[in-house]
Amino acid sequence: MAVINVPQNLSLKSAINFCNRLWSLEDDESYEFDFARLGLVEPFTMAYVANELKRFSSAKPGTCSTMNFENHSYAAHMGFFRAFGLEHGKEPGEATGSSTYIPLTILKVSDIKNEAARFGEHIGDILEEKSKQIATILTRQKTGDLVDTLTFSIREIMRNVVEHSSSDVIEYCAQYWPTKHLVEVAVLDTGIGIYEGLRTNPYLEMSNERDAVHLALLPGISGKMYKGVKERKHDVEWKRGQV
After folding, report:
1. Whole-angstrom Cα distance, residue 189 to residue 12?
2. What is the mean pLDDT of residues 102-111?
3. How far apart are the C-alpha atoms of 4 and 124, rounded to whole Å?
4. Helix crossing, 109-119 with 123-139: angle to 10°?
5. Among candidates 64, 13, 63, which has minimal Cα distance to 35?
6. pLDDT tens per residue, range 131-161
7. Is 113 helix (H, G, I), strand (E, B) or coil?
């Protein structure tokens, strides 16, 4: 049996290092994750690590177990443990949230598409409310130009997941720490990546992920909309209505 100690501080760097080590483990008959040291859990790392633990467990069915997870009330309340299959704490999205946090929430892309089709609305409209909820946590305001700007930006991130990433889910969460004057928001997907998403555009020259990221930061770059591709009428109308 391989015992895997989950780090005390799941900050961005330690979470990435932990998940990289996870996939480099030698094959074993069983794997036990020990959460005894777990302390700080941040929104992005909570979503990221939960997703990687779920993927790891799925890749090695019947071999993974956990221990010493019972005393981590914050992570349990936010939906961290249930997100990777452990029957402990609240389900993702189950906690009601408040003006200071949004629990780890997992939206199925298929549900978003079905809801848009059912009500004859654009995907962006379905994601508007969820994006504004995140924006109000970020800004500590309910209305205003900054709220509107961030709502637009977050909505576009979520739209990209639905329309371009081929991901099955969108995961997001947020936390405001008043004593630290700090806000953190995370939006995560498990899609094909930027490089694969842009490869369908024959006018783009890129040879690796770095090239793709640099191109993606430029205005008007898309893997689906380029010269010769006809926009859907619904998309054009929605864009005009939102400007």
Report:
1. 16
2. 95
3. 41
4. 120
5. 64
6. 999 999 999 999 999 999 999 999 999 998 9
7. helix
**Which amino acid is residue 72, in one-letter code?**
H
Whether 243 shows a pLDDT value over 50: the answer reads no
Q: Which backbone phi and psi does 175 adopt, to 5 degrees?
A: -150, 135
Q: Beta strand pairing status for 2-5 and 182-189?
A: unpaired
Rounded Cα distance, 37 and 28, in Å: 23
pLDDT (0 to 100) of residue 235: 53
Residue 172 tokens read as: 């997001």
Encode 115-149: b = buried (16+ Cβ within 10 Å), e = exposed. ebeeeeebbbbbbbebbbbbbbbbbeeeeeeebee
pLDDT tens-place string over residues 194-217 = 899 888 888 888 999 999 999 988
Q: Locate 41 and state its tokens.
A: 């859990």
What CA–CA distance (Å, rounded) separates 25 from 39?
A: 23
How far apart, in Å, are the Cα atoms of 47 and each of 10, 44, 55, 104, 177? Answer: 11, 5, 12, 7, 18
Q: Got the DSSP string for 22-51?
A: HHTPPP-S-EEEE-TT---B-HHHHHHHHH
Enumerate residues 6+ apart whose C-beta is below 8 A from 201. 221, 222, 223, 224, 226
Task: Report the distance separating Cα 63 and Cα 61, nearest Å.
Answer: 6
User: How would you classify the pairing of strands 101-108 and 64-67?
Assistant: unpaired
Q: Which two tokens stand for residue 21?
A: 């080590």
Cα–Cα distance measured from residue 130 to residue 213, given in angstroms and rounded to the nearest whole number: 26
